[in-house]
């Protein structure tokens, strides 16, 4: 019965990790096709730095894309990285996503170039950075494997944070990445625990504590011998005890 319950919970967890990113990405595609069908350019809803009207772009920018290629380049990473975020960090995933969304957009609005910035790639960079650094900091075996997988598959994203392509919003990439790093530290006490630490990480600590334990045992045994000798001479009953110490413009963001 317990196994069936666990399987049901795991199945639901997987379904949610798939369906939420699919729903979000589907929304992006619907908006793009609505823009294409009507012939209306929605880029004016993007972030226009340091303007009052451009503030609303913080909310709308991830939903807007300048071309089919731009949308495709963001869709697959959002599905993969978004699914990983929700599956492994289900208790904090939505908070992490919303904070990255906001900080990335605010950074672009404050310091970006004077052009419309659109695209969800700031989220892609933010989620990727969060997964990489959170896995390393938590020292959790599963999360560490996820971090290495993200580095292996999306390591080339780092080049998108440099201003060498004029039509790319490298600012969105950079601020998203920095936001991901920050929130990997900020939420370190929440979410998955570091309960799958590889044994080799503690080998040095164990080696260092062995001499200390032996020294403590020798001290206790010497004290016990002295007490026994004293108690024998005084013909008193001795009570022996032991203890253990506890150890602790339209800038596309593709």
What tags apply to this protein structure?
254 residues, mainly alpha, Rhomboid-like fold, two-stranded parallel ribbon, 2% strand
Using the alpha-carbon principal axes, give the shape: globular
Specify the biggest β-sheet. 2 strands, parallel
Number of helices: 8
Q: What is the CATH architecture descriptor? A: Up-down Bundle
Strand tally is 2
CATH top level assignment: Mainly Alpha
- Uncertain residue ranges: 195-203, 232-248
What's the CATH topology name? Rhomboid-like fold
Question: In what range is the share of β-strand residues?
Answer: under 5%
Structural class: mainly alpha
Could you estimate the helical fraction of the residues in percent? 55-70%
**Oligomeric state of the chains?**
single chain
CATH level-four homologous superfamily name: Rhomboid-like
Taken together, the total number of domains comes to: 1
Order of helices and strands: HHHHEHHHHE
End-to-end gap:
48 Å
Main-sheet strand order equals: 1-2
Residue-averaged pLDDT, rounded? Answer: 83
Describe the structure.
This protein has one domain: Rhomboid-like (Rhomboid-like fold), CATH 1.20.1540. Helices cover 63% and strands 2% of the residues. The chain contains eight helices and two strands, in the order H-H-H-H-E-H-H-H-H-E. The longest helix has 37 residues, at 2-38.
Set out the fold topology.
Blueprint: H1 2-38, H2 57-60, H3 68-88, H4 93-111, E1 116-118, H5 121-138, H6 141-154, H7 170-186, H8 203-233, E2 250-252
Parallel strand pairs: 1-2
Helix pairs in contact: 1-3, 3-5, 4-5, 4-7, 5-6, 5-7
